[in-house]
Specification:
Keywords: GTP-binding, Magnesium, Metal-binding, Nucleotide-binding, Nucleotidyltransferase, Transferase, tRNA processing. Its cofactor is Mg(2+). The protein has eight helices and six strands; from the N terminus they run E-H-H-E-E-H-E-H-H-H-H-E-E-H. The chain is an alpha+beta fold. It has a single domain, classed as tRNA(His) guanylyltransferase (Thg1) (Alpha-Beta Plaits, 2-Layer Sandwich). A six-stranded antiparallel β-sheet has the order 4-1-3-2-5-6, sandwiched between helices. The protein is elongated. The model is unreliable at 225-266 (pLDDT under 50). The structure holds adenosine-5'-triphosphate (2 copies) and magnesium ion (MG) (4 copies).
């Protein structure tokens, strides 16, 4: 049938190769997880079961694809770094994005009952995926610093927000209003003086996200750790707001980017 009179439609499929010699950064993000987390009664601000399930699915993806050297997760998203030299699926973008996204989703669903034994899925979750190409290691470092700054900013906001609601008795509308225009130091102050919470003692996972990397010397085992945060929350923010502070001190500046020329053991 390959040469049937219908086969010409195949020529409408356009090639979508990704530029060679560039780092591939694949990121996926839960579709409408605001609703999904609501419908599945995630604990606010951070449901550890859900974060661990994300880590598990990410680990499955890394196990299947040895060309992924590093991954970073927060909230409903995960980022995966593929080595520059990867020839995975001849670097065809839609093939890579769709396969990795569906593998992650399948793993998330498959392992759901392990993390939520008393709460069956109400409907199938989905994730979107994309690949961005970066030419240099600096871009990769800045990328991960950017995601981790996002983790920090969101978590500081969410932690303060939910303290105001859960412990402070405010409505969500009131809590948003309370936080409007506040700087990081104001949120630290609200947490500490009103709720006795020292932000810096909260779980690393919540404040910094989770990192998966491949330990090459040790039979390709996957590990999880937290980036060391060099982001200095003690620096007074002057006229900057949280949004602008994201572009300040990079967080993962001292984290080694896996050496491109070193083969990954399998
Ligand atoms: P989109 O489809 O555009 O991504 P979204 O509703 O998924 O929309 P996000 O910006 O991705 O929006 O935010 C994900 C939301 O999911 C968070 O704001 C939070 O409400 C919820 N969420 C995700 N993971 C957790 C978790 N581990 N614990 C509690 N809430 C979570
Ligand atoms: P690729 O990843 O390139 O798609 P593939 O192994 O999935 O590789 P396909 O050309 O998509 O190759 O073919 C799918 C194969 O899966 C079929 O050739 C057949 O062997 C098997 N298969 C799929 N569905 C069925 C089914 N319902 N019953 C029996 N075999 C099936
Ligand atoms: Mg989003
Ligand atoms: Mg989302
Ligand atoms: Mg998200
Ligand atoms: Mg197939």
């Amino acid at each position: 049938m390959a040469n049937s009179k219908y086969a010409y439609v195949r020529s409408f499929e356009l090639p979508d190769p990704l530029l060679p010699g560039t780092f591939m950064l694949f990121r996926l993000d839960g579709h409408s997880f605001h609703r999904f987390s609501d419908q599945h009664e995630f604990k606010k601000p951070n449901d550890t079961r859900a974060l661990e399930l994300m880590d598990h699915a990410a680990k499955d993806v890394m196990t299947e694809y040895p060309d992924i050297v590093l991954a970073f997760g927060e909230s409903d998203e995960f980022s995966f770094l593929l080595r520059k030299s990867t020839t995975l699926y001849n670097r065809r973008e839609s093939k890579i994005v769709s396969t990795l996204t569906s593998l992650f989703t399948a793993s998330y669903v498959m392992h759901w009952p392990k993390y939520f034994p008393d709460f069956p899925l109400r409907y199938p979750p989905s994730f979107d995926g994309r690949i961005v190409l970066y030419p240099t290691e600096k871009h990769i470092r800045d990328y991960f610093a950017w995601r981790q700054a996002d983790t920090h900013i969101n978590n500081l906001y969410n932690t303060t927000f939910w303290a105001l609601v859960q412990q402070g008795g405010q409505t969500t509308t009131q809590a948003h209003a309370t936080l409007r225009g506040t700087f990081a130091k104001d949120k630290h102050e609200i947490l500490f003086s009103r709720f006795g919470i020292n932000y810096n003692t909260l779980e690393d996972r919540f404040r910094k996200g989770s990192v998966l990397f491949r330990e090459e010397a040790c039979s390709n085992r996957l590990h999880r750790l937290f980036f060391k945060v060099t982001y200095n929350s003690q620096i007074p923010p002057k006229e900057t707001n949280d949004e602008q502070r994201m572009t300040e001190e990079p967080i993962a500046a001292d984290h080694p980017i896996p050496n491109e020329d070193r083969p990954v053991s399998t």
